[in-house]
Amino acid sequence: MSKPSIDLSKLYKPHPRQVLFHQAPEKGRLFGGAIRGGKTVCGVAEGIQLSIDYPGNVGIMARQNLPAFKRTVGVELQKYIDFLSHTNPPVITQHHSTDHYIQFHNGSRIWYTGLGDDTRGLASQMGTTIGWFFIDQVEECSEMHFNNLLGRLSLNLPKIKLKYFLTANPMPGWVKMRFIESHPDDFIYIPSLPKDNPYLPENYEAELRAIYPEEIVRAWLDGDWTAMEGGNFLFPYNQIRLAVNREL
């Protein structure tokens, strides 16, 4: 089996924050913490590279539901499918859109799914042993979904580096508590803000700053994980936390 020569720079030129993400040696990584920092494209590129670098690797790309996945992650993933299906020999040999997987020339496979979907979500992947997983906008998902995928991360391949990587925008909840307020072992958080993304239109950020309310500016543009705690919720999240921790 000949090994294809692959130049992925035609599809993806990472900016400096994305380079930090790709070079990070930690098993777990959280990237982003704001909108339009290049989160999704970064996660897709990482999954493709892991599938190429480790023959026989198995990974899962996911979002909370499949329609959202197709509108975001799926758009970026399709660029690689189109490109890598036409190399010589093809790097990607099959895209099974019904069963939601992509097969690689070297035996690697990427499954994709909506974690919250009843028929195509987590239950369909419960028996899958994987070498990596990527959850885009993980703040939309439950901690149970994350923990179940973490438990599947046990693929035994020569020299494989088991990995999980996540993207998120600042929101109160389990992601903030587990990865921002705490410091898990073998894990890194790499912020990437709109100002770090050189591929955005000119004046993109300035125009949003003029329109967005203050808490949205702080959260989505400045990457402030505390900004939304007293924001647009029926009960501010900091009050919910206090109620949960009260001694009765």
Report on this structure.
It is a single chain. With 248 residues, the chain is an alpha/beta fold. It is 33% helix and 17% strand. It has nine helices and eight strands. An eight-stranded mixed β-sheet has the order 3-4-5-2-6-7-1-8, sandwiched between helices. A hairpin with a 4-residue loop joins β4 and β5. α2 (39-53) runs parallel beside α4 (73-84). It starts with 15 loop residues before the first helix and ends with a helix.
Mean pLDDT: 90
Could you spell the SSE succession in H and E letters? HEHEHHEEEEHEHEHHH
Strand order of the largest sheet: 3-4-5-2-6-7-1-8
Unreliable segments of 5+ consecutive residues: 234-245
CATH architecture: 3-Layer(aba) Sandwich
Portion in helices:
25-40%
For the record, the CATH class is: Alpha Beta
Strand content: 15-25%
| Count of DSSP strands | 8
- Sheet having the most strands: 8 strands, mixed
Oligomeric state of the chains in view: single chain
- CATH fold annotation: Rossmann fold
What is the general shape?
globular
Structural class: alpha/beta
The name of the CATH superfamily reads: P-loop containing nucleotide triphosphate hydrolases
Radius of gyration from the alpha-carbon trace, in angstroms:
19 Å
Q: How many domains in all?
A: 1
Continuous helix count: 9
Map the helices and strands:
Blueprint: H1 16-23, E1 28-32, H2 39-53, E2 58-63, H3 66-71, H4 73-84, E3 92-96, E4 101-104, E5 109-114, E6 132-135, H5 143-151, E7 163-168, H6 174-180, E8 187-191, H7 204-211, H8 214-221, H9 237-244
Parallel strand pairs: 1-7, 1-8, 2-5, 2-6, 6-7
Antiparallel strand pairs: 3-4, 4-5
Helix pairs in contact: 2-4
